Prior knowledge:
59% of the residues lie in helices and 9% in strands. The chain contains ten helices and six strands. The strands form two sheets. Strands 1, 2, 3 and 4 form a four-stranded antiparallel β-sheet that branches. Strands 5-6 form a two-stranded parallel sheet. α3 runs parallel beside α6, α4 crosses α7 and α6 crosses α7. The radius of gyration is 19 Å and the shape is globular. The model has no long low-confidence stretch (mean pLDDT 97).
Amino acid sequence: MKRFYKDVSVAEEGGAFHVLLDGRTVKTQAKATLALPVRALAEAVAEEWRAQGENIDPLSMHLTRLSFGAIDGVKVDRAKVANHALSFGGTDLLSYRADTPQELAARQAAAWDPLLDWAAERHGARLKVTSGVGHIAQPSEALAALERAVAAQDDFALSALHAATMLTGSLVLALAMADRRIAADQAFAAATIDETYQAEKWGMDSEAEKRLKRHAEELSAAEHFLRLLA
């Protein structure tokens, strides 16, 4: 899409902050008003619009997309988004370990065990661990605890938490990042232990490398989004 505006600004109205393009409020993909809860986020979103060149690249506008997700997704059907994030808790990446090789299993344990301990201590969610690919049923009390943790997020925070969960394959990692237990780069490293190990042994093709780089950028943006809300 060609850039169709020159000036980008932020205005407050009714306790919300709007991003204006040549004086007109930005609309979401569903044509809702882009009303943001804090000025810091609105200014950061506005900067994404300012940074666009002759053509608008939506994939480069991570904060805008997360904001759209909060308004068009979470606010419209919060239960659907929350339940999708919670579904990862039942099959959390951190619960499924390699049998072999020993080095990979050791790396997983070193990175993931402290985070599972944290989830148990912080949220009361003690998840079970298994090896191999066979499904393991998680305790109902642990899943209920994760449900409470997700429910505690406001609509905008849930948008970022949901994105982080999908990017990492782990609700525990997403919650740890949201709670500042780990940073985005640490969460990404923990989520890609298998890929890193395989790349060390066999190398990585360019497409996989590009995909991982894109996911790392998106996860970092989700962290930034959450910090702007604070």
